[in-house]
Write a structure and sequence with these properties.
Blueprint lengths: L4 H7 L25 H15 L4 E6 L1 H12 L4 E7 L10 H16 L5
Parallel strand pairs: 1-2
Helix pairs in contact: 2-3
């Protein structure tokens, strides 16, 4: 939460802002074993429930973007709008596995292109 700085200050002029550190980040509790971004989204949903917030504009930055994506997928009626920044849809996208998967997809696509 500490990284939000001026961005949160400006949002607070117009919106009620709720931000939280997922488990294992910042000042939050320790991260449980096998804690996924989907589990982090469930924690975010539990926080909305606890605060009595029915629908929210959801913004996710970096890892928070993956968390926000799961929140929108798993609880679409709770998300008024979704904004993502500096994020990827899948943590494997930046791994060698993700790169190889992207190259394989591109190769398969090139093989199926009709010649002119």
């Amino acid at each position: 939460m500490a990284l939000w700085g001026e961005f949160v200050t400006r949002l607070q002029d117009t919106f009620q802002v709720v931000s939280f550190d997922p488990r294992g980040v910042g000042l939050s509790s320790d991260v449980p074993r096998l804690y996924t971004t989907r589990a982090m989204a469930r924690d975010g949903l539990a926080l909305l429930d606890h605060l009595g917030i029915e629908r929210a504009h959801v913004f996710g930055l970096s890892l928070g973007g993956m968390v926000a994506s799961w929140l929108a997928i798993d609880a679409p009626t709770r998300v008024r709008s979704l904004a993502l920044a500096s994020t990827i849809p899948d943590p494997d996208a930046n791994s060698w596995r993700g790169v190889l998967r992207a190259l394989a997809f591109r190769a398969a696509r090139l093989m199926h292109v009709a010649p002119r």
